[in-house]
Amino acid sequence: MGATVAPETSSDSVPLTMACSILGVGYTSRLFKELREKRGLAYDVSSRMEQGSDYGYMVASASVKPRNLQVALGIIRREFAKLGERRDVASELEKVKRGILGGAMNAIDDPWGFPETMVEHEIFYRNVNSLANRIEEISKMTVDDVTRAADKYLNEENLATVVLKP
Question: DSSP letters of the chain?
Answer without folding.
Answer: -EEE---TTSTTHHHHHHHHHHHHSSTTSHHIIIIIIIT--EEEEEEEEEE-SS-EEEEEEEEE-GGGHHHHHHHHHHHHHHTT-HHHHHHHHHHHHHHHHHHHHHHHTSTTHHHHHHHHHHHHH--TTHHHHHHHHHHT--HHHHHHHHHHHSSGGG-B------
